[in-house]
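Let's sit down with a protein and look at its sequence and fold side by side. Please make up or recall a protein chain and show it to me in full. Label the sequence line and the structure token line clearly, so we can match residues to local backbone shapes. Go ahead whenever you are ready, and we will take it from there.
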Amino acid sequence: MSPLDRAVDGWVAERCKAMGRASLAPGADLHDEGLLDSVSLVELLQVVEQATGREVDLLDLDLDALTTVQAVKAELGRVVG
């Protein structure tokens, strides 16, 4: 598992825990589930930057693609390489 994958999975687990949830269903929409909004996106990007050592520029992201955990990993992987 890559540092990016570990960072995203860890962030999702922490967000679920903070919301009193045990886990997130595979394929669940992060917006609909209340896990991802503009503030939490900034937090996620900070976690990813720390884990990968690469800066993420918001202008490089397709924000509409950030829906599921897998989609987030794919989009951030595209940006951080």
Notes: Residues 3-80 form a domain with the Non-ribosomal Peptide Synthetase Peptidyl Carrier Protein; Chain A fold (CATH 1.10.1200.10). Helices lie at 3-18, 38-52, 69-80.
